[in-house]
Amino acid sequence: MNAVMTVDLSELDAWSAQVQRASDDLTGIARNGGHSLVQTDFGPILETMMGAYNSLLPSVHQSLTDNGTGVGDHAEALRATARDFTLTEDGVVRRHRAAGIDGRDGSSSFYDVADTTIRRAGPTETSLPQISFGFPYDTVCDLVRMLTGFDIRAELAEKIGGDVVGASSQGSSFGCLGTSMRGVAANLQSGGETISRTWQGGASDAAIAQIGTWVGSLDRQAGQLVQMGQNIVQICRDAWQTALAVVQCVKSAVQTVSSALATMSIPGVGWARVVQAVWQAFQAVMKAYKAIMKLITILKQVRSFIETVKSFFDGDKAPVSTPTAPTATGTPSSVIRDPGSVATPTIGQRAPAAPVAPVAPALA
Question: The whole model's pTM is what?
Answer without folding.
Answer: 0.78
